[in-house]
Design brief:
Blueprint (H helix, E strand, L loop, with lengths): L2 H16 L10 H12 L5 E7 L10 E7 L6 E10 L7 H15 L7 E10 L12 H8 L5 E8 L9 E9 L8
Parallel strand pairs: 3-4
Antiparallel strand pairs: 1-2, 2-3, 4-6, 5-6
């Protein structure tokens, strides 16, 4: 799977959606999931959204955002989250971090022989990679999150509605087969 091309697809899709003058305050996580699903459906034999981590017969109904597999190969598990930091908003970086950690905990329960990804798509009112962004608690939380497993990051200018959103960023963490997710 070419994650760098997948990131470009997500950014391009969200830019296209923004041209439609959406009514939402932020791009929706479902839009991101749908874009990734669409990009993967011809590259894998099976692609499922909201697939349970375990059989429903085990009494658990915990879902993964995207699961993909080719016949005879270990599956790929993906969790997707959004983040944001806008000067005029109450950003609640602690709550955002908690939701990321919940998804990482879910991914940590998957068979270690699987490939696992965590996608984080963020919108900002300044470039998230600039030095003054280091004071941004959302960015600080991203930098602290499994920094050794961060495999891709991309930033781009972005316009969403008549808001202060001017930048989009995507970060992807990856755990290959045999690698443990430690929280």
């Amino acid at each position: 799977m070419q994650v760098d091309k997948l990131i470009n697809t997500v950014i391009d899709d969200l830019k296209k959606v923004s041209e439609s003058e959406p009514n939402e305050r932020l791009p929706k996580e479902e839009q991101i999931r749908s874009c990734i699903f669409s990009a993967l459906k011809n590259k894998f034999d099976y692609v499922c959204c909201e697939r349970n981590y375990q059989s429903i017969e085990n009494g658990k109904n915990i879902e993964c955002d995207i699961w993909a597999a080719n016949s005879g190969e270990q599956p790929v598990w993906m969790e997707i989250k959004r983040c944001w930091h806008l000067s005029s908003w109450v950003n609640k970086p602690g709550e955002q971090l908690k939701s990321w950690e919940e998804d990482l905990n879910k991914l940590s329960t998957v068979d270690i022989n699987s490939k696992r990804y965590f996608f984080l798509v963020g919108v900002f009112d300044s470039e998230p990679n600039r030095n003054d962004s280091k004071k941004n608690k959302v960015i600080l939380n991203i930098q602290k999150t499994q920094s050794q497993k961060l495999c891709f990051e991309r930033y781009s200018s972005y316009f969403w509605r008549e808001s202060s959103i001017s930048n989009i960023a995507v970060w992807v963490w990856c755990w290959n087969s045999g690698e443990v997710i430690t929280i």
